[in-house]
């Protein structure tokens, strides 16, 4: 799971601004090194039945490489992916389409036309989506999917959960909205069936992730997986225990941009 691919010092040029978002942004040079390290690895991947069939073997030869948020650096990432025979799975936050730092409708159509997968990342990107009300969950998935279907003139049934805060009702609402494949932030290679959709976990890439670690995760090696699983479990516990205080501390320590209106903070979608 990647987010943005931007030059060092230009982290706010793509995707959400601020120090917290910057932790998940890599440079083009880093990303190229990751792809070179991953190239040739063909692990035993879960079936991804709802992703488009491609006329070449790229989908079968590589693990799914996903990008959350919908930052405009998707175009840079796509160039680097294609140069090495990969495709990307770009999950777009619908409310931000066409705003500074995010992909436009033209960009989305171009990415799809180049063979990449486009999916929903909700409308408003709630940081704690698992805590949203049922009506908001349904709206987040239904409206964001409708926006992308209208832009592409094609059905969109794949999505990823924003903020890493997953709960069963998030998947249930996604299924009700017509999504059939949902990516979470759980660091696992195992897929699950729930509410008529398929859940896939992902490994998180941060700005300090090395190419060797990316390759090891892609190959399914135990040690880097176990490290991510332990950190993820601790983070989930902190979120659950801290609640609103967790968000307050997060803002204090990381000072994300005040212009970002996360869906569970603004009360709107």
Short description:
With 269 residues, the protein is of the alpha/beta class. It has eleven helices and nine strands.
List keywords for this structure.
11 helices, alpha/beta, 9 strands, TIM Barrel, 41% helix, three-stranded parallel beta sheet, 269 residues
What would you call the shape?
A: globular
Approximately how much helix is present in the residues? Answer: 40-55%
What is the residue-averaged pLDDT?
85
Report strand order across the widest sheet.
Answer: 6-7-9-8
**What share of the residues does DSSP label as strand, in percent?**
5-15%
**Cα end-to-end separation:** 24 Å
Largest sheet: 4 strands, mixed
- Helices, by number, come to 11
CATH class, named Alpha Beta
CATH superfamily: Glycoside hydrolase/deacetylase
Q: Segments where pLDDT lies below 50 for 5+ residues?
A: 51-60
Gyration radius (Cα, Å) is 17 Å
Total tally of structural domains? 1
- Helix and strand composition category: alpha/beta
| CATH domain fold name | TIM Barrel
How many beta strands in the DSSP annotation?
Answer: 9
CATH architecture annotation name: Alpha-Beta Barrel
Order of helices and strands: EHEHHEHEHEHEHEEEHHHH
Walk me through the structure.
With 269 residues, the protein is of the alpha/beta class. The protein is built from 11 helices and 9 strands. It has helices at 19-22, 28-38, 58-61, 74-83, 105-113, 134-152, 168-176, 211-218, 222-242, 244-254, 263-266, and strands at 4-5, 25-26, 66-67, 89-92, 117-120, 158-160, 181-183, 191-194, 197-200. A 4-stranded mixed sheet has the order 6-7-9-8. A 3-stranded parallel sheet has the order 3-4-5. Helix 2 packs across helix 8 (211-218).
């Amino acid at each position: 799971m990647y987010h943005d691919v931007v030059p060092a010092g230009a982290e706010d040029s793509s995707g959400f601004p601020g120090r917290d978002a910057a932790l998940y942004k890599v440079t083009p040079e880093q990303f190229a090194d990751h792809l070179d390290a991953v190239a040739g690895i063909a692990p035993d991947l879960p079936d991804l039945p709802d992703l488009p069939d491609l006329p070449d073997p790229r989908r079968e030869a590589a693990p799914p490489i996903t990008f959350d948020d919908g930052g405009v650096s998707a175009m840079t990432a796509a160039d680097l992916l294609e140069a090495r025979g990969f495709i990307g799975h770009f999950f777009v936050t619908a409310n931000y389409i066409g705003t500074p730092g995010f992909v436009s409708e033209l960009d989305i159509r171009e990415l799809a036309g180049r063979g990449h997968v486009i999916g929903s990342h909700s409308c408003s990107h709630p940081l704690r989506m698992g805590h949203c009300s049922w009506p908001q969950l349904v709206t987040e998935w239904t409206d964001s999917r409708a926006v992308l279907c209208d832009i592409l003139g094609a059905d969109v049934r794949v999505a990823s959960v924003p903020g890493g805060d997953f709960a069963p009702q998030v998947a249930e609402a996604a299924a009700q909205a017509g999504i059939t494949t949902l990516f979470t932030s759980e660091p696992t290679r195992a897929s699950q069936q729930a509410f008529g959709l398929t859940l896939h976990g992902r490994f998180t890439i941060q700005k300090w992730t090395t190419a060797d670690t990316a390759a090891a995760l892609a190959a399914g090696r135990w040690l880097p997986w176990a490290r991510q699983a332990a950190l993820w479990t601790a983070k989930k516990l902190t979120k659950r225990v801290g609640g609103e205080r967790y968000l307050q501390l997060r803002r204090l320590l990381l000072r994300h941009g005040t212009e970002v209106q996360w869906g569970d903070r603004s009360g709107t979608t």
